[in-house]
Amino acid sequence: MTTSAPEIHRGLAGVVVDTTEISTVIPETNSLTYRGYPVQDLAARRSFEEVAYLLWYGELPDEGQFRDFRARERALRPLDRTALELLTRLPETCHPMDVLRTAVSFFGAEDPTEDDGTLAANRAKSLTLLAKLPTVVAADQRRRRGLAPIPPDPSLGYAENFFHMCFGSVPDPDVVRCFEISLTLYAEHSFNASTFTARVVTSTLSDLYSAVTAAIGALKGPLHGGANEAVMSMLLEIGDPQRAEAWLDEALAAKRKIMGFGHRVYKHGDSRVPIMQDALDRLVARAADPEVTRLATLHAALRHAMINRKGIHPNLDYPAGLAYHLMGFDIPAFTPIFVMSRITGWTAHITEQLAHNSLIRPLACYAGQERRAVPAAS
Ligand SMILES: CC(=O)SCCNC(=O)CCNC(=O)[C@H](O)C(C)(C)COP(=O)(O)OP(=O)(O)OC[C@H]1O[C@@H](n2cnc3c(N)ncnc32)[C@H](O)[C@@H]1OP(=O)(O)O
Ligand SMILES: O=C([O-])CC(=O)C(=O)O
């Protein structure tokens, strides 16, 4: 009997593994909707907190629901002394994503309801993580600068409070708005690698903290969320707009991946880039600083060169990386900022996975040694 070789989908490229009601990416029209709403409109008209509510509950909140949600998020922001001490014990040589991963694992270990997978319990945990992760990211950035943490301010919105905890002040509303737009755009993107990781862990009926810890590990990689940091390091390496084309030619000849370009799903441009690029352009214009203009010119030159040479378009990490640099964040904090936003999408997917769970366990086509006898031990 002859058996035909199974079709292999390396990287699960093009494979549809389940349904989702959370978001849809339509590569043909370069569009993205959250619960049916175009992400561009959400970014323009709604706060990031409202987007978080939408992703979790399926509808935008009314006034009363939003007041209650916001109050609960603000009350959960502080870290207790044990958590703060734990953070200071981690070596400063480790990546801030390691700190965040460890913090989430710690929050799970100290939560007596860790293994309660009911909808109510998971919603409470999701809100706790949304509220506390910025406090961790800000405290970690400050300790690496030799500075004490700044406690959260419950009178400030999510984005404003993050600036306050990082720098002790809130920049002008245009900068905060640009940051908030990036959070909305980063919040959710269907079955990307980190979300799928969270769904795999959840499918074994493990707990939400374990799923999020694993997702943070997946997002850290430079082919995924880690690219926003790599973009900025690459721009600093190139340095001069005049060098962009020659640098790109050398990098492509050396078969280097150009960070912030390309996407598994979008092949003609990422739906989120135009709005993030506009926000970045506004940041650059308001800075009116020659050094900022030089970086923006380099950023544009590399984008044009990459599209001309390879026809490969930037993804969201390309404008977001430079925007975070201009806002004053340290490069290793960029992917943790992505986590502060994507925690909403991950936890929405964890809830959805549990509601219609089936253990995720694909098959592999064996390509190793033929069956053979174990030799006698000598
Ligand atoms: C928020 C996010 O996670 S967005 C993604 C962030 N990641 C990055 O920016 C890292 C750089 N980009 C990449 O490595 C890729 O584009 C990925 C991983 C994002 C998508 O990869 P895939 O869907 O597997 O596309 P694949 O790697 O097959 O690319 C197709 C071709 O384009 C090339 N290509 C794709 N992206 C790039 C890039 N950034 N630089 C150079 N070449 C690229 C590939 O080398 C490949 O060429 P080949 O056919 O000659 O071998
Ligand atoms: O969808 C993907 O593969 C990666 C991505 O853009 C995201 O997670 O935001």
Shape: globular
Number of helices: 16
Beta content: under 5%
Radius of gyration from CA coordinates: 22 Å
Secondary-structure blueprint:
Elements: E1 23-26, E2 31-34, E3 37-38, H1 39-45, H2 48-57, H3 63-75, H4 81-89, H5 96-109, H6 119-144, H7 158-167, H8 173-186, H9 193-203, H10 208-220, H11 227-238, H12 244-253, H13 273-287, H14 290-310, H15 317-326, H16 334-355
Antiparallel strand pairs: 1-2, 2-3
Helix pairs in contact: 1-8, 2-16, 3-6, 5-6, 5-10, 6-7, 6-16, 7-8, 8-13, 9-10, 9-16, 10-16, 11-15, 12-14, 13-15, 14-15
The structure holds acetyl coenzyme *A (ACO) and oxaloacetate ion.
Oxaloacetate ion is lined by residues 189, 192, 263-265, 315.
GO biological process, one term: tricarboxylic acid cycle
Active site: 263, 317
GO molecular function, one term: citrate synthase activity
Descriptive account of the structure:
The chain is an all-alpha fold. It has 2 domains: 20-222 and 331-355, Citrate Synthase, domain 1; 227-326, Orthogonal Bundle (Cytochrome p450-Terp, domain 2), CATH 1.10.230.10. 57% of the residues lie in helices and 3% in strands. It is built from 16 helices and 3 strands. Strands 1-2-3 form a 3-stranded antiparallel sheet. Strand 2 (31-34) and strand 3 form a beta hairpin. Helix 2 (48-57) packs parallel to helix 16 (334-355), helix 5 (96-109) packs antiparallel against helix 10 (208-220) and helix 11 (227-238) packs across helix 15. The longest helix has 26 residues, at 119-144. The radius of gyration is 22 Å and the shape is globular. It starts with 22 loop residues before the first strand and ends in a 23-residue tail after the last helix. Residues 189, 192, 263-265, 315 line the site of oxaloacetate ion. The active site is at 263, 317. This is Citrate synthase. One of its GO terms (cellular component) is cytosol. It catalyses: oxaloacetate + acetyl-CoA + H2O = citrate + CoA + H(+). Pathway: Carbohydrate metabolism; tricarboxylic acid cycle.
